[in-house]
Each structure stands twice: as C-alpha cells, then as structure tokens.
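Worked Example 4.2. Consider the chain below.
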Amino acid sequence: MKKIISATLLLLIVATSNLLTAQNLDEVLENHFDAIGQKKLKKVETVTTKGKINQMGIDVPFVQISVRPNLFRVQGTFQGLSFIQTYNGVEGWTVNPFAGTTEAEPIPADQMKELKVQADMDGILWQWKEKGYNVTLDSTEEVEGTPCYRVKVVVPEGSTYVNFIDKESFLLIKTNTKSTMMGAEVESESFYSNYMQIEGITFPGKIENRYNGVTSEIILIEAVELNKEYATTLFDKSGTTIVTE
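Applying the procedure from the previous section yields the following structure tokens:
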C-alpha cells in the first residue's frame, strides 16, 4: 500500500511540475509578445529593413524584405557587386559574386531549413504548437550580466534554438542556434540590442553574430518600413536581379 501511495504521489508531483512549467512558459511568452508588440505585428503585411552589415571593418549596405506568409529577400551591395538571396516559401535562390557565383543557384537543403525559420515574420515562438515545434522553458541563465529565461525550441527538421529572454524587459537578448550544415553540426550565437519602436512594434537595432565565440558580423539596422508593396516575383528565381530604389 505504501508503494502504491508513494507512486501516486510521485505521479501527482510530476504532473503538477509539468503544469507549472507550462503555465510559466505561457506567461513568459505572453509578456514577451506584449513587449515586442506582436498583436500589431500580426496586422503588418510586409517589413522592409535597411542597414549595414559590418564584416572585418567593412560596411556592406543591405535591404531585407519579409512578406506574409513566408516570402523573404535580402540584397547587399559592396564596390558595385551585389549578393542576393530569395525565398518564395518553397524554393530559395542565391547570387553571391563574392563567392564566385554570378548566376542564380538553388540554396542547399540544409541552408533552406534555416531560411524557412528566418522567413517567418512572426518569429519562431509565435503559435509554436501550430507550427509543430517543441518549446520548453528549461531554466534561467545570465547573459553578460542580464538575468534571462531560457526558452528552447526544437523544429521538426532537427535544428535547436535556445532563446534568452530578458526577465525584466521580456525582450530577446540572445539566440543560440545548433544546426547541421554539410553533415557537420554548426553552432552560432546572435545577440540583440539597441531596440527601437516602429508604430508600436519593437525591432532590434543591432544584431551581433558569433561563431565559436568570435564575432563574425555586426548588423546595424538604420530604418524599418512597414506595409510597402512588392511583386511576388521578387522572391522567385527571377528576383535574383539587382533592385535599386
């Protein structure tokens, strides 16, 4: 009888622990969505981001376009040469003269997994159950002195994203990404700061990407435009031509 009671108590403790975890996760995400203006973002059809990518002291101006439901395009230009990446929700194409590619080439399957996540305008945490993701609030941790919630996301393709959300502001401070590229596991970190508000929606003004602890690039966002209209062909293979404004 004692064993039965002990087992029953153990089940109750586990069930209660799981319930509390679920409640805490929901609360953290709700506060996070309030902090970034998610409800207002849902009403936005397109987001155009302009800025500079700094690599090894060199600034490369870029324009990134996101269109619902999952269209994505980025173009950067340096010394008269432009790299372009497009995604139409199914296929992705790239032109990168800096890597010797001057004609549009299909983006490899392993890179497409990351591009699919990047093309989601609402972010990886919004409606994660409907997307088939596995999301857990596994612990808390400090990121360079800032206490954060650790929210872990595993997508069906196998990549893992650990999001560090500031316990005070509920803004995203850092994302640790683990994915497989060309058969090898790749780990990277992205740090978000200099947040700004555009029409009640919060966007990071600075993104620092690190690989193996070393900064590879710093993205400085100078302007964000909402609801600018674009032709869908801009995100197909035919969209890999240079666009000037």
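The chain has one domain: 2-72+108-227. The domain at 2-72+108-227 is CATH 2.50.20 (outer membrane lipoprotein receptor (LolB), chain A). Compare this with Example 4.1 before moving on.
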